[in-house]
Fold this sequence. Notes:
This protein is mainly α. The longest helix has 16 residues, at 63-78. Helices cover 57% and strands 0% of the residues. The chain has 4 helices and no strands. Helix 3 (40-50) packs antiparallel against helix 4.
Amino acid sequence: xxxxxxxxxxxxxxxxxxxxxxxxxKQLHNALGRxxxxxxxxxxxxxxxxxxxxxxxxxxxSLGEWDCLNGHLATLLGAEEGDD
Length: 84
């Protein structure tokens, strides 16, 4: 089971998961596309790299799948809103 890092590496992971669950009745491509400052093409690439169907909903992803998405998007999410 993947371990979510302690410290600053944890913040992008939480942003990603919270964005997915903020609109949990939406498909991931819609929920994350609306909630994150990430281009849709980048999201599509992350879904493809992780083998995740973008039409799934947040509650269907495993921790490992969230971790994979985080690995592809963390640098973009970590730069959001003036992180320390």
